[in-house]
């Protein structure tokens, strides 16, 4: 039986494990695939998504969600992915420093360098997104990260489709200006569907 999001959240706050499991089953696979495009490791992606759900269950009595459950979950997974990447960069850099010295040619592994550069680029882009005005940022994230259409966003936030289009356009314009020094690399990420 399908229940509304408000009912699901209310039931979760009342210790209803069945409602919690319903949300888990509904979103887990999509969230894991979404997380995978950031962390590039299936086990890590699944672990991070599970951590998001554990956090929701732990905070069930005080949890307030101002968007849809779907938008909240995708944003939480994205944030947890970027936190993971931020923590991994120094570890990976140390590993490259040690492993790279063993390379007879004296150069670091090209693949590892590309992965580090990609991860750093993702963090840089996310910081730019985080600097957008709150409404603009929310709409941009719902569009790009939660995979919602302009119409779905407009209905969710009680706005016109035109307002949503304008906010996404404004976000892209601001990001283009802020990311100008690295825009070519960001454009490649967009083309490869990593943003």
Automatic annotation (TrEMBL):
Q: Name one Pfam family in it.
A: Sigma70_r4_2
What UniProt keywords apply to this chain's record, in alphabetical order?
Answer: Sigma factor, Transcription, Transcription regulation
Q: Where in the numbering of this chain does the RNA polymerase sigma-70 region domain appear?
A: 24-86
CDD domains hit by this protein: Sigma70_r4 (cd06171)
**Keyword match Transcription regulation:** yes
Which InterPro entries would you find in this protein's record? Answer: RNA_pol_sigma-70-like, RNA_pol_sigma-70_dom, RNA_pol_sigma70_bacteroid, RNA_pol_sigma70_r2, RNA_pol_sigma70_r4_t2, RNA_pol_sigma_r2, RNA_pol_sigma_r3/r4-like, WH-like_DNA-bd_sf
Domain (RNA polymerase sigma factor 70 region 4 type): residue spans on this chain: 124-175
Specify the domain of life of the species encoding this protein.
Bacteria
Q: Per the similarity annotation, which family is this?
A: Belongs to the sigma-70 factor family. ECF subfamily.
Could you tell me which NCBIfam families the record lists for this protein?
Sig70_bacteroi1, sigma70-ECF
Q: Which PANTHER family match?
A: RNA POLYMERASE ECF-TYPE SIGMA FACTO, RNA POLYMERASE SIGMA-70 FACTOR ECF SUBFAMILY
Q: What is this protein called?
A: RNA polymerase sigma-70 factor
Give the organism the record lists: Reichenbachiella agarivorans
